Amino acid sequence: MLRSAILVFLLAGLLLSCAREDAPDARIAITQGPDAALAIVYELRRPQTELAFNDITGDYRAAHWDLPPDFEIRKDEDREIIARRDGGRFDTLALTARPASDRLPKEYQPVAPYGAGGVLVYTGHFWPLTQHDARADVIFDLTPAPGGHAVAFGDNAPALENWQSPMAHPAFVYLGPLEPIETDAVMAVIDPQTPDWIVGEFSRLVPESFEKLSALFGAAPETKPNLFLAAAPGKPAQLSYAGDALPAQFQIMLEGGVWTEPNDQAREVFIQATVHEAVHLWQAAARPGASKPPEWIHEGAADAIAAEVMAALGEWGAAELEADEDRARRECARELGKGTTLNGAIARGYYRALYACGHVIAAAVARAEGASTADFWRAFIERAGPEGYSEEMFYDLVAERTGDPDFAGAVEDFARKPLARPEREIDGLFAAAGALARERGR
């Protein structure tokens, strides 16, 4: 009898130990507070001397995260560290995170006001890292203000508990009073301040563009996309469109008085930029690898594929396509003329180079191989596989699909080397692409 009791006790201890080992590294409770502030509580499985996070450009965390007085935050190369001032271990940390006063450049906004009484949270900036700089194994508890909704992907609940993204990736989560709208194409949260004509364009554009993109890529998105559309008054003459995309999600923030009434300029900006963000839903099937390849690879291609979709939708004809490519060529030359390489543009804050010069490369490659940029990306997604893609993989595929390693080398030089005369280099890239196209046509 004693032996049986001991065996039961040992088995129970073993099961408890296994359960502890299977537990996540941390539970992160995010609760919506007043004025778009978030109450954040970290409960760690084991006591730690620090929490590490991917760095955010500037001093966002130091300026907008209110820590307990016995904790501090510091930069450590490309990470930010939160630790006790006395170096001691801790297993719980409670802080308050407030939205930035201005939009952070080329960053997902950690927490942003979203419509009256709502916030949009990007979980990636609250997600700690392991010692090897991978994202830790965490679960989230996400709670809106009383009476609100927590919305992410297909979930719509009074709160999300023990939540992890179905895409195994940082995600947007809406916390607030708005009831999401679910259709065959999407789960959408739309701010009622958004002008009716934009909601109408959005409702028409999403299914039509998704159908075209599914045809171009030969596949639908991995899961039903989750979209967020909001508007803010802004200045009377302002026309601002800010968009961010994640696997199976994108968000749009419109600001300015020009959006109030229908007009051709606002309509074209809205349609083209929304299609660009939608392209990212399909591109997300190819994730960047650990080497963190340059962003012009996917941003420039998204611009080029968006142009192809605009033509497929009947929004643009040949003249508009040519004018769009010409704009990209001029803007790329202007950005690289500031004394940066394309690969170094983001470090200098020249974000437009990522789009314009990436578009130039995508268009030149498409011309050289006699196909579309969407064709290239279908192959790129397949090549990337579960390990993700690298810059080198991109050049290798350019060489393979154009049949010319020298052309791929010219593309690589264009991205990596300083260009004394960017206009001439752009012209040369397209001349080489045209020569390959003519050779193929013989």
> Main β-sheet, in a few words?
6 strands, mixed
Which runs of at least 5 residues are low in confidence (pLDDT < 50)?
A: 1-20
Strand order of the largest sheet: 4-7-2-1-10-13
Individual helix count: 12
Q: Radius of gyration, Cα only, in angstroms?
A: 24 Å
| Termini separation | 90 Å
Structural class: alpha+beta
Q: Helix amount, in percent?
A: 40-55%
Overall residue-averaged pLDDT value: 92
The overall strand count is 19
Strand portion: 15-25%
Question: Based on CA inertia axes, which overall geometry fits?
Answer: globular
Structure description:
There is one protein chain. The chain has helices at residues 2-22, 60-64, 196-217, 264-283, 296-312, 318-336, 345-348, 352-369, 373-384, 391-402, 405-416, 422-441, and strands spanning 26-32, 38-48, 50-54, 65-66, 71-76, 79-84, 90-97, 111-113, 119-122, 138-143, 149-152, 155-157, 160-163, 172-176, 181-182, 187-190, 226-232, 240-246, 249-255. It is α+β, with helices and mostly antiparallel strands and 442 residues long. The strands form four sheets. A six-stranded mixed beta sheet has the order 4-7-2-1-10-13. It has a five-stranded antiparallel beta sheet with strand order 8-9-14-11-12, with no helix packed on it. A five-stranded mixed beta sheet has the order 15-16-17-19-18, covered by helices on one side. Strand 18 and strand 19 form a beta hairpin. Helix 4 crosses helix 5 (296-312) and helix 11 packs antiparallel against helix 12. It is globular and about 65 Å long.
